[in-house]
Design brief:
By secondary structure, this protein is an alpha+beta fold. The chain folds into three domains: about 45 residues, no CATH class; about 260 residues, Purple Acid Phosphatase, chain A, domain 2 (4-Layer Sandwich), CATH 3.60.21.10; about 120 residues, Immunoglobulin-like, CATH 2.60.40.10. About 15% of the residues lie in helices and about 30% in strands. Helix 3 links the parallel strand 12 and strand 13. The chain is elongated and about 85 Å long. The termini are far apart.
Length: about 550
Amino acid sequence: MTSHVRPLLPQPRLSITASTTPRAWFKTALITLTLLVSCSIVAWAQESVTATGVVYHDLNKNGVRDSGEPGIAGVMVSNGDDIVRTDPEGRYQLPVEANSHIFVIKPRDYQTAVDSDGLLRFYYTWSPDGAAGEQYEGLNPTDPLPESANFPLYHQPEEDQYRVLIFGDTQPRDLQEIHWFAHDTVQEVIGAEARFGVTLGDLVFDDLNLFDPLNEVIGRIGLPWVNVLGNHDIDYSAETSADARGAYFRTYGPSWYAFSSGAAHFVVVDNIRFIRDDEGSRYRTGLDEEQLNFIENFLDHIPEDDLVVFLSHIPWAYSTAWQNDAELDRLYSLIESRPATVSFSAHAHRHFHRFLGSDERWPGNQPLHLISMGTTGGAWWSGAPDEYNIPHSMMRDGTPTGYAWLDIDGSDWKLTYKASRRSEDFQMHIHAPDMISLSDSRPEVHANIFNALPDAEVELRVGESGEWQSLTRVERVDPVYVSMHRRERGLESAAWRLPGNANASTHLWAGSLPDELEPGVHTIYVRASDRWHNYEGRRLIRVTE
C-alpha cells in the first residue's frame, strides 16, 4: 500500500549571504543539521514502527485475551509484505508503515472473528494521518499502535470437502438496486450450506455510501464473507492510492491478504492500480512490489501441490491494460510450477472459462484456468422488469443473472453456475425458430450452455428416436440476446434501462436441424457433458407443409 505521510516539521532551508561570517555560518549550519536530523527521525518514526502481539485461542469468544487463553504457535502474521510465524507462545513481531494493516493469515481448523454482517475482522489498521478522498468518508486517523496487537482465533475443525458461494459484481447504484439484488439472489441463498462466501469486487457502483446497506443484506445469508476490491469501490476524488481506498479500508480492512481453508489456500488480490495526474483520476490493472512480495512469501509456506485459489476483480488476461507487464510476468513466475492453481475474477459482466497459454504470456507447461464470473447484477440491472419489478438484466453474452458454487475436495474442485430464481437444471437456453415449413432450408440451432467448459461435448437430436449429431462451438453473439435486444430497443419509450449491444459468447454451440422432418410438433433435445457436469435442454418446434 502506498505510504501517505505528512511531515510534522517543515523542511529547513540554509540561506548564506556574502556578509555571513564563518562563526555565523557554522552556527546556522549546526542548527540546520539538527533540524534535518530531527525531521528525519520524526518522519522515520511515522513511516516505520514495530508491531508486536499474540495470536491466541479465544476460548470464551469475547474478543479479549483473558487469563488462561493460550497463544497459538506457527500462525502466519503479515504486514502486507513480510510474513512471520508466531513463536511457541503465539507471539509475533513485524515492522509496519503508515496506512498499512497487520493481519493474521487464518490457518486450517481455525476461524477468525466476524461481525454481525459476516465481515471478517482479522486485522489491525495503523493510519496516523487517516486515509480519505474529498467525496466519501474514509479512514480516520488511528490511535498509536497498542503495546500488543492481539488476534483471536476460534478452533473449528475443517474437512477437505466443502462449498464456497461466489458472487460476481453486486455493483448497486442505489438502494433500489440493492433491493433488486436482495430479491433476485440473496433471498434464495439465506442459510446456504457453505463454508464462506465471496464477492469478487465492484461491491458498489461508485457510491461508497452503499457499503453498509449492502453488507446488511449480504449479512443475512449467514456466512463469513470475503470481499475483493473493485475499480468501482474506490474514491476517485482522492490524491493518492491509499486515500482512494480509505472508505474500503474503514469498512473491510486490507485489500489483499490470504487464508487457508481445509487443504486449500486463498489469495485475495487487489489488482486495481489507481492513477492520479494532470488528466484526472483513472485506473489500470496492476500489482505493486509490496503485494507481489506478499504473494511470494505466502506461497513459500504452501506445499507446491496444494490447491491455490486467487480471488481478484479484473481477470489477469483481459482488455484492461496492465500498467506494467513485468508485474504480470513476476506473478506468473510464482505459480507456473503449481499444478493446482485457479484464478477467479469478475469485472467483465460475462461468464467464461479461459485456459491461458503462451499467447497470454503464461509460461507454464500446463494452461492456467481463469474464470470470469457472471454477475448477480447481470448487465447493470438493464432490461424490462418482470412481474416482480426486477429487470431481467441478461448479460451481453446471453448469461442470466446468477452466482456460482465452488465445490472443493482437497486439491480438486468444480464450479456450478446457478441462475437466480431459476431451477438448478436451467443451465442453457436453445434458440431455434418457432415454426418452419418443409420447403424452408434447415435453420441453425444455437445452444448457450452458460457454464460449459470450452471442450464440452455437445449434441442435438430431434424427437425420441432421432440420431444424435454433434454441435460445434462458435464464438459469436447469442441470438437469444440479439432477439431480446432488438425487441426492447425497438420500443418507442421504456421506463427502464435499455440493454447494451451483445458481446460474443464463448459458451455457444451451433448446428443444423436434420433434413428428414415430418409435419407436426417436434422436440429438440440438446445434451452436453464436460469433466464436471452433464447438461440437458429442450425446445419445441413446429414443422408445417
